[in-house]
Amino acid sequence: MEKEEILLNIKKEALDNHIPIIEDDSLEYIKKILEECKPNKILEIGTAVGYSAINFSKYLYGENSKITTIEIKEQMYEKAIENISLMKLQDKIEVINADATKYLKQINDQYDVVFIDAAKGQYLVFLEEAIRLCKIGGIIIADNMLYRGRTLSNYNEHKHRTATNRLREYLVQMEEDERLDSKLVKVGDGLAISIVKSK
Ligand SMILES: C[S@@+](CC[C@H](N)C(=O)[O-])C[C@H]1O[C@@H](n2cnc3c(N)ncnc32)[C@H](O)[C@@H]1O
Q: Would you say residue 78 has pLDDT above 90?
């Protein structure tokens, strides 16, 4: 089977199983960023089945380029490993089975791009770690910032309130943080894009 066909199957299987993978519009937007910034090292927080990481891997640039992606659920981790092997990308994508809130604190590598796409309640924790782990001039991208319209809406159901509040705090933080130059892009479910100017 051709790689494109395998990737389409990975996407279809994820959608059939209601696994929240990146939306097409958001992916297209991020591809353009990656095309321009030519990343050598990408860090992804929230692998799911590896769909976004597989897509990003086409835009890696230079020697020893790599994506490190972190997934808390063992079942997802196993599926991501399987998908990445099917795509023959084991040497380009490293999947870590861990809670990113803990794992990130143990690493000091520097990345060109950090993609935040995991538990919304932890987005501010992820942002601070992402700033620490991003090179100056590097880019932090956070997905699902609009949370299906909830982030900018006045009323939200109780069960969504904590996540919504954390996402709002993220938006305020990225605006006010002098280390960052940020914008919210209303594509897909909303992408927060921040360039790290200083640390
Ligand atoms: C939206 S999905 C990721 C989708 C993936 N980036 C894609 O577009 O193909 C979010 C994933 O983050 C994982 N996750 C949630 N909290 C996490 C944490 N603290 N550490 C690592 N992974 C986490 C979830 O298990 C889930 O698989």
A: yes
